[in-house]
Amino acid sequence: DTEGASGHGHAAMLAGNDDRGWRFVSKEGRAADNSSDGQDGTMLTGGKSAVLDRPYATKAEALSNHPLYDRVLTFKTTYSTAMRVFSATYRSAISSYHVLVANCGHAVADGLSAIGYYSGSAMEPKVRYEQILRYNNNNHTPLNLNGRILFPRN
Question: pTM for the complete prediction?
Fold first, then answer.
């Protein structure tokens, strides 16, 4: 979502295939609580993560339920590898949130790194996306043609 996070971008992971289903996961920022700003922790210290985790039958259904994602990067791989990516992304998404060192882009990066794809180094999700796109499209061959991993562009 190129306009997410006040223009810094927002990223999420969609992994699977239309035969066996898809899983969507997104690290959404700091979790809600009853504090004065309504979020766990602080901007300085970070806090618990708000996570969106949803199953979908088809890629079209998933994308229609998340219309703010305006750019999509697709990697072809096996379904089992796609689920490894989802698991790594999910583990990162549920860890503590910090805008600089543990944001949505870091969660997606952890998923891609789990299967050996370059995952960028930028803190800002929109910039990290460009790094992932540039490196993986030029230097990394997809693993195979059976499944897909989607990385919404930020």
Answer: 0.83
